[in-house]
Design a protein that fits this description.
Chain lengths: 80, 492
């Protein structure tokens, strides 16, 4: 992978890229949902652990994307 | 029946009124296929949602939530992850689209791989995979009309009525192309997802307060995720989310949304607008399904949960509104589907081998849309027992486009040989495995056929990249292409 390819992937701030990777890990990594399933009858914030897991993952993904847009806009990434 | 059918008729009349006000800006094929790349973030966001969430969400996924519980939330996870993917690829796709006047997904692959034939392969996979879903959409309207008639219409009559409604609606899709689709998506989307969410939240409150259903009263089996030792296999959920997230942008009618925006900023802003709406709608729908599992009337009729509960809670008026919402969601999905396939038939199949002027391309696209509509309508009226299995198989097949599409955007080494061979072998592998091991592969810990085929596909793609490296001329062309993206500001 050369410099241009790397830079193309890095047009976003590093912490946003890390957050996007984190989204993918918590949404996809099987060991996480296997563990959550073991605690499915435990209630967290009034809901079963597995439901809490899915909603937390969703909120994390939504926040990461909104943050990405706000950061890029603040940094002037959309200006010509 | 007068109330339920009356509400549907009023909604349909409003849609037609809106479409009659739509004016095309010029008679180019770019205007017809991608609305001249002219839409802002709000239209883009609603257009994405209206194409992404079909009417079947209210039947199939609400039904899955009612029958199986929390596992249904996988649709929420992949629906949000796929928007993250859109955010990441928005810039290269839009910049190349604008610079080279790309109008379809196969156009992009043909540009990236400098290949005419990849256009044909991608278009054929896209069209073949999409038709089962069109038929399912039409049949879902049949289910809706059975309920709106309080069982007075037989299922076959109701399907005919559903097909009739959707076919009439396509007159404007064919006439106006993408601009008509996106403008109507705005109204349909507001009705289906904002109106739908409000009703769903109201119904959840109704079930909690008057029916005494809470998360505590639900069976613990409703909160199970397939894990180690489960029937589906420990990697099943992983496969569902992965194929859903990357598969989203393989559908031609979703991908073309990247070309209808007026800039990269618009695309990224539309993602930020669509995300919270998607979250609220999907969580409301799935929680609604889970709560409704506590109603005795839903037992054994999970896929009818939306119509049963609205009728039970609000009588014919709420049932009629429920029908309007399903129709709004179905129309958005079906219109986008038919429009995208018409454009592909003209641009990527016939236009790939014959030199056609814009007027001829538009005529062929319109004829293509009419043919696709007629074939789907005809098949929808038939009894096709394996249709849902075929639709699932189509999903496993179409995600094979993901390898050349995503890797091609960020990795220059990939070449046309690897893209075509990988995609074709991946598609065949997925179909073969799905035929023999429907749902999941027990010997692969629950991976789905499409996921395993993706591994094969990607291995071939990478192997060809190293065995047949691009020559100096091709490398230079790719450098220019990638530099173009790097040089452009996000504004486009």
């Amino acid at each position: 992978m050369n410099k241009n390819e790397r830079e193309m992937q890095r047009s976003l701030p590093i912490f946003i890229i890390v957050w996007f990777y984190l989204d993918a890990i918590i949404a996809l990594a099987p060991p996480i949902y296997w563990i959550v399933n073991d605690y499915r009858i435990m209630f967290i914030f009034g809901m079963p652990a597995t439901l809490f897991y899915f909603i937390s993952v969703a909120v994390c993904i939504v926040c990461s994307l909104i943050a990405a847009y706000l950061v890029e806009e603040k940094q002037g990434a959309f200006e010509s | 029946m007068i109330i339920t059918f009356g509400l549907v008729a009023v909604f349909f009349a409003v849609i037609i009124f809106i479409l009659h006000k739509v004016k095309q800006t010029n008679d180019s094929f770019t205007e017809y296929a991608v609305a001249g790349r002219s839409f802002g973030a709000k239209y883009q966001a609603m257009s994405f949602l209206n194409t992404w969430y079909p009417g079947a969400m209210f039947t199939a996924f609400a039904g899955l939530a009612a029958a199986s519980g929390v596992i249904s939330f996988y649709v929420l996870t992949y629906s949000l992850l796929t928007v993250v993917l859109m955010y990441v690829m928005a810039k290269p796709v839009w910049v190349w689209g604008k610079a080279f006047d790309l109008k379809t997904q196969p156009d992009l692959l043909a540009l990236r791989y400098n290949s005419r034939h990849i256009r044909t392969v991608t278009a054929v996979i896209g069209i073949l995979s999409g038709i089962p879903w069109l038929i399912l959409g039409m049949q879902a309207l049949g289910v809706m009309f059975v309920h709106l008639s309080f069982g007075k219409l037989s299922f076959s009559m109701a399907v005919l009525l559903g097909v009739f409604v959707i076919v009439i609606r396509q007159f404007w899709t064919v006439r106006l192309g993408m601009r008509g689709v996106i403008i109507s998506d705005m109204f349909q989307g507001i009705v289906a997802y904002i109106g739908g969410s409000l009703i769903l939240i109201g119904l959840i409150m109704w079930m909690m307060t008057t029916q005494d259903i809470t998360l505590n009263t639900m069976d613990s089996g409703m909160f199970t995720i397939p894990s180690i030792g489960s029937e589906q296999g420990p990697l099943w959920l992983f496969s569902l989310v992965l194929t859903g997230a990357i598969g989203g942008w393989c559908w031609p009618y979703i991908f073309v949304r990247l070309f209808t925006a007026d800039g990269v900023k618009t695309l990224k802003k539309s993602a930020a607008i669509a995300m919270p709406l998607s979250l609220i709608f999907c969580v409301s729908l799935l929680l609604f399904g889970m709560y409704a599992s506590g109603l005795s009337s839903v037992e054994g009729h999970a896929e009818d949960v939306w119509f049963i509960v609205t009728n039970q809670a609000g009588g014919p008026l709420l049932l009629g509104l429920a029908g309007v919402i399903v129709l709004a969601a179905t129309m958005g999905h079906t219109d986008g589907n038919i429009q995208a396939y018409g454009a592909q038939i003209a641009n990527d199949l016939i236009g790939n081998y014959l030199k056609l002027d814009p007027k001829q391309l538009i005529i062929i696209a319109k004829v293509g849309m009419v043919i696709i509509t007629i074939i789907s309508a005809w098949l929808a009226t038939m009894t096709l027992p394996a249709l849902f299995a075929l639709a699932v198989m189509a999903y496993q097949g179409i995600i094979q486009i993901a390898v050349p599409q995503f890797m091609g955007l960020f990795w220059k080494k990939g070449n046309k040989q690897g893209a075509i061979v990988g995609m074709t072998v991946g598609f065949i592998t997925a179909v073969f495995l799905e035929f023999n091991f429907p749902e999941s592969l027990p010997w692969a810990y629950g991976l789905t056929s499409g996921t395993l085929a993706l591994v094969v596909n990607m291995s071939i793609y990478v192997l060809f990249a190293y065995l047949l490296p691009n020559d100096a001329k091709e490398n230079q062309r790719l450098d220019t292409l990638f530099n173009l993206v790097h040089a452009k500001p996000n504004k486009g």
